[in-house]
Amino acid sequence: MATNQHRTQASGTLGTSAWLALAIATLSGCASLDGNGFSPLQPPPQVTTVPTRSPADGRADAAAPAGTTTLATPAAVPNAKDARDASTASVAAATAPGTPVPVQEGPLAPVPGITAPAAHAPTAAAAASDAGVDVAGPPSDPLEPEAPVQLDPATTHADLWARIRRGFGMPPLDSDLVREHERWYASRPDYVQRMTERGSRYLFHIVAEVERRKMPLELALLPFIESAFNPTAISTARASGMWQFMPGTGRDYDLKQNLFRDDRRDVLASTRAALDYLGRLHGMFGDWQLALAAYNWGEGNVKKALARNEKAGLPTDYASLSMPAETRHYVPKLLAVKHIVADPKAFGLSLPEVQNHPYFLSVPIQRDIDVALAARLAGLSVDEFRNLNPQHSKPVILAAGTPQVLLPFDNADRFVQQLKQHRGQFASWTAWVVPKTMRPAEAARQTGMSEATLREVNRIPPRMLVKAGSALLVPRSERRVADVPEALADNGQMALAPDLPPMRKVSLKARKGDTVASLARRYRVSPAQFAQWNQVGTSSALKAGQALVVYQPNKVKAKARAGAAPQRKVARPSSAAGPQAGSVAKRSRSNVKVARRADD
């Protein structure tokens, strides 16, 4: 530390070494200039004692207990360097062994109910999870991510239904089917109420997307028909989501379907895909009613129906086509909903108020995070969180595959702030690639979890093997701390195989009167399995002599041989027996040959 000997009078002359020493002293905070030259050196910061707080009653004691290290704070800090040094000293003192840690308050305080990490050296996982500032970005409107979020625009409290009515543009359809569906909805006010309340979460976004594409706003009502605005709905034909995409069509429109998520249920992705598909169909047929028929029935079927009518000289409008009952009712059902939205009082119904502003905002995430933790930080129940993020079928969200989460308008900012304050790991699950085909019990042993939990989380049915290369969701550990990479998050699949002993192929020929069911019973397999092996239907007729196959466990062969009765010789018919006896003997030998072939 520089001392007073470096100070000279302002009128005096300083040598080179003196100037250098004075410069060092000045930069170190021990000397400063005043109006007449140099002022006297400032003394070092005075140390005061911070009263400790009694953990029992929160009172501030007059002095720290004997033998306790107290926190040192500077009474006066002459420059920024001293402020940083004092702050560093305070942190060091606070973390020393035996030091009472003061109550943390403000933006960096831990979230109540979440255990703070231990004071000892953090693991790699804990150190990575402490980077809370980089976990999420600012909330934004998914349709205008660069525009500032308007918290209270002039149109916020306007009625969204009025906006929808102004955007109707499809031609009417004079059909008894329309009136039939109007009566059906009018007689079920509770159903209409539930459906519209559920749809109010998503309608603003869909309306804005439809308007942006300059499409008629009747299309925004289509999820009422497809799924009653249930984003987790799944049909018997395996169509899924609010817009009811089939697996193949979903993949055609870049809707990922893997172990971790199903984008057919994703509110943003499925809406984008549905409107892309409808726009393409309208460009193909030039008519919205035909486009809707193709959305329900398939574009190839609509093309064939149009070709049939053209060949027969019949009209080619929607009402004139020969279609399945579901497609024939499809557009009338949509138009019935349109008429109810246009004038609910005419049908004795009332629609819940839907405000003309986003119900949800998009929050970018950069780290994997448990669904339960994300919901808690946003102040939501898990069910409420899943209503807006229904594509996640597992208890963790993988940031590499899902760049954002959707949160209600009023909860998005809370989530970002709470996420910054969170201390601890963000995800307790990760993905593990199975190195070889194995039983679930072995996979559970290698990943440190119970077999029951492994089966439940990954939905592995009984008596199945997990094939090599499959991705499984497993707990994080000290060896598995990194977030799931993008390639695995986007393409992770689980492949299963029956857990059966090695099988052998048995060839046989059908006899007169044999059926798929009778042969399945004979070989103790299901009719469906037997039919699949032989590429026939379960009720298909079998011809005598038809070549068939069946697969049997190898152990059956050994058991059959061990317990088989000794073969009896087939007596040759004597000449006195005549030709009829000879034919019986031939049939007997034929039956024995088939039986032996079945046992080989």
Structural commentary:
- The protein is mainly alpha-helical and about 600 residues long.
- It has helices at about 15-25, 80-95, 125-130, 160-165, 175-185, 190-200, 205-210, 220-225, 245-250, 265-285, 290-295, 300-310, 325-340, 370-380, 380-390, 410-420, 440-445, 450-460, 485-490, 515-520, 525-535, 555-560, 580-600, and strands at about 30-35, 35-40, 45-50, 70-75, 360-365, 370, 395, 405-410, 430-435, 465, 470-475, 495-500, 505-510, 545-555.
- Helix content is about 40%, strand content about 10%.
- Strands 1-2 form a two-stranded antiparallel sheet. A two-stranded antiparallel ribbon has the order 3-4. A two-stranded antiparallel ribbon has the order 5-8.
- Helix 10 (about 265-285) crosses helix 11 (about 290-295) and helix 20 packs across helix 21.
- The N and C termini lie far apart (about 100 Å).
- Mean pLDDT is about 75; it is low at about 1-135 and about 555-600.
Search tags:
about 600 residues; mainly alpha; two-stranded antiparallel sheet; two-stranded antiparallel ribbon; 23 helices; about 40% helix; disordered N terminus
List the helices and strands and how they pair.
Layout (H helix, E strand, L loop, with lengths): L15 H12 L4 E3 L2 E3 L7 E3 L22 E3 L5 H15 L29 H6 L30 H7 L9 H11 L2 H11 L3 H10 L9 H5 L20 H6 L14 H19 L2 H10 L1 H14 L12 H18 L17 E5 L4 E2 H8 L3 H7 L7 E2 L6 E5 L3 H10 L7 E5 L6 H8 L3 H8 L5 E3 L4 E5 L10 H6 L4 E3 L4 E7 L6 H7 L4 H8 L12 E7 H9 L15 H22 L1
Antiparallel strand pairs: 1-2, 3-4, 5-8, 6-7, 9-11, 10-12, 13-14
Helix pairs in contact: 5-13, 7-10, 10-11, 11-12, 11-13, 14-15, 14-16, 17-18, 20-21
